[in-house]
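I am writing to request your help with a piece of structural work I have in hand. I am sending you one protein, given as its amino acid sequence and as whole-number tokens for its backbone shapes. Kindly check, if you would, that the fold set down in the tokens agrees with what the sequence suggests. You will find the record immediately after this paragraph:
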Amino acid sequence: MPRFGFAHLLFAALALLACVGGGDAPAEQGVRVFLSGVFDRPDSRLLVPSVAFAGDYAVAGWLQDGRGGRTLLKRSADGWEFVVCGGEELRTAAGLREAGLPFALVEPMAQAVQASEASLPAHQRATLGDFKGLMKMDGAGHSPPKR
């Protein structure tokens, strides 16, 4: 019987931690969970040190295996979907326009990205810019097949 009580206590504690989410806002936590679910590997966890929002879009900065980049995501009825992966481009208004972000959200997103990354160490900000170019993604996180 004590084992049963301990298991319930453990699950209750884990559920509470999931709800609290380490202080992250629910949308920010949702982005992190989505990206980790796609890219985490047993030998290499994906870190998401920054997430910025404008409308139904987010730009998440990611780090994994000494590399990094940024990802433009769109919120849908089913959750978050990939739009574009990139690097420094997804930090600028010109790059966000090129990535297909709606015009009205370009400036607010550029400002939100810069604000979300302001407290990151310089080496992390530099690594987020490592991804070269913009790569269109399907909603599941793969580049669409070339036709």
Remarks:
- The longest helix spans residues 2-20.
- The two ends are 61 Å apart (CA to CA).
- Confidence is low (pLDDT under 50) at residues 1-23, 143-147.
- The longest strand covers residues 67-76.
